[in-house]
């Protein structure tokens, strides 16, 4: 499985927004966006370089990929799948990315960040509807029930993660039954419930060329 090996804070600074790649640290004063006022770093960043039209479109695409932790090939697959679905391609793309299992786990508190949630999934700690799932890109659907596997280590780890993330409120399309360590998918998310602030039309315009 491919993964980013560069410092995560540099990715946030390059996009100029918090991508919440380091979990709880991103919500504290230690966040590099807060300390460095969102500057990407280097001498050129302080001169206020003006982006070209292509650059603006490209940065929106990079922001979206980095937020959900996907690489170019996988992102293209999502885009082509969104194109084939009825409705607005940009909204379809965002909803597909939002439905990823690692994203759902992050929202309900099973992981401190999306990358941490991917690690939890890859190590075989999660079941969906009673079946173990170890693929982070698994797309959840309405009615799915997410639970840790019936192992003491997995249950204790998920419980500790939920306790650490108790201040995080799941979006309206997800619910957490804390006493049962159970996450439920109440409905498929709509555009207003997507967690990333993005101009999806710019992404579609770039990918359609």
Keywords:
about 210 residues; alpha+beta; Ribosomal Protein S4 Delta 41, Chain A, domain 1; Structural Genomics Hypothetical 15.5 Kd Protein In mrcA-pckA Intergenic Region, Chain A; five-stranded antiparallel sheet; 9 helices; about 10% strand
Q: What features would you describe in this structure?
A:
This protein has nine helices and five strands. The chain has two domains: 8-97 and 196-207, Ribosomal Protein S4 Delta 41, Chain A, domain 1; 100-188, Structural Genomics Hypothetical 15.5 Kd Protein In mrcA-pckA Intergenic Region, Chain A, CATH 3.10.290. The chain has 209 residues and is α+β, with helices and mostly antiparallel strands. Strands 2-1-3-5-4 form a five-stranded antiparallel beta sheet. Helices cover 43% and strands 8% of the residues. The radius of gyration is 18 Å and the shape is globular. The longest helix is centred in the first third of the chain and has 16 residues, at 53-68. The model has no long low-confidence stretch (mean pLDDT 84). It has helices spanning 8-15, 32-36, 53-68, 72-84, 89-98, 101-108, 114-122, 152-164, 200-207, and strands at 126-128, 131-132, 145-148, 174-177, 182-185.
